[in-house]
User: Fold these one by one.
Assistant:
Number 1:
Amino acid sequence: MCPCSLQALLQVDLKLHDLGVNDTIEQVRALAQRTVTDVRYPIVKTYTLDAIWVLYDRVLRVDPKRPDDPARDRFLLSKGHGPSAFYAVLAAKGFFPVAWLDRIATLESPLGSHPDATLVPGAEMSAGSLGHGLPLGVGIAHGLRADGFPDSRVFVLVGDAELDEGSNHEAIAYAGAVGLANLNVIVADNGSATHGWNGGIASRFEVNGWSAAHVDAHDHEALYRSFTTSHPDRPHVTVAAHRP
């Protein structure tokens, strides 16, 4: 789909949809359930939605009317193989019309089974192979500080099994060593990691100089406290545990 046709589709749909109507977690949960893109990973939306919702509803400084604001916060969905929760929240917050959710992964849709940053309004990275989001987050956090936006935060959502990727080992060690205080990671922990870590996931970050919190993946207040905790001299990780 070329940019011109995407823009035309967006303009047509905006006329049909009152943006900002779906602004409760119950409504957004219903939006996530009506999509079919997570056929291979149907439970992903059930344990990532709460964290993404709390971020966009209460934490992130982002504006769908100014998606390219250089001072905005950034959210990177590294765990991109289950994007229904992410798409539902973006639609609810007005980045694109809710009607788009009904034609995900069709030929004419900008919403694919993995988010494409060149097509999805509000998506900061294209997700495919696991292991790329955290290294990208490190680079973006560095770039924001270099460009004079030290208060702009970067949040990266990764999966616990994704931490088996070697690129994440390096990113965790480096970010802690240089004290990237504007970097935050959310680990969606469903107990699927192959190798694990002695002492648990949080200790893996802490030994590399991060601050850390372990919370229930569905506890909104605990998520909010962790996302907004002060960590002025180091990056921070929230391990959001989901156990069916």
Note: The two ends are 39 Å apart (CA to CA).
Number 2:
Amino acid sequence: MNMRFAALGLALALAGCASGPSVRALADPQANFAVYRSFGFASPLGTDRGGYQSVVSDALKTAARRELNARGLSESATPDLIVNFNAQLADKTRVTTTPAPMMGAGIGRYPWGPGYYGYRAGLYAPFPLYQDQTTVTNYQEGTLNIDIADAAKKQLVWEGVVVGKVNGKALDNLPAAIDSAVTQAFAKFPVPTNPR
């Protein structure tokens, strides 16, 4: 279902691994952020579904509005900047290979197996042998994009991207997870909070 897809995709950004999500940002070096005074939201937003504003879109707008207001910009019907969002979910597989001690065959009273090394049985353990142990983990990864474009030039001037694992805790409190992701992205915005 598209709504669930958007919610999950967004959820990714919010929570994630123990180390937290990955956050990247890119700003147009030619853009003069000091001249921008107002913002508005794209219509429809990339996170809207089926002709209506999704719960995800609403939470994104609330968080972005707070961040932009804190940087001295106000919402306007004729904005200097247009804000848009996109959220996506992808199934991922992580394969890790690590060396693990290999124990003996454990045949009968010979814990390291009969044969040449059978004389060690019960007296002491040999050096452990190592073999590769492969672990396969399936998980869902979400990506949240926050685009900010110059409304007059119709040109992207800033993009924030948050990527992380989707987990149940984030889905249980989606607005808080979205808020956290947006806050982390805007920490890399070229205009600091309370600039004026």
Note: The two ends are 44 Å apart (CA to CA).
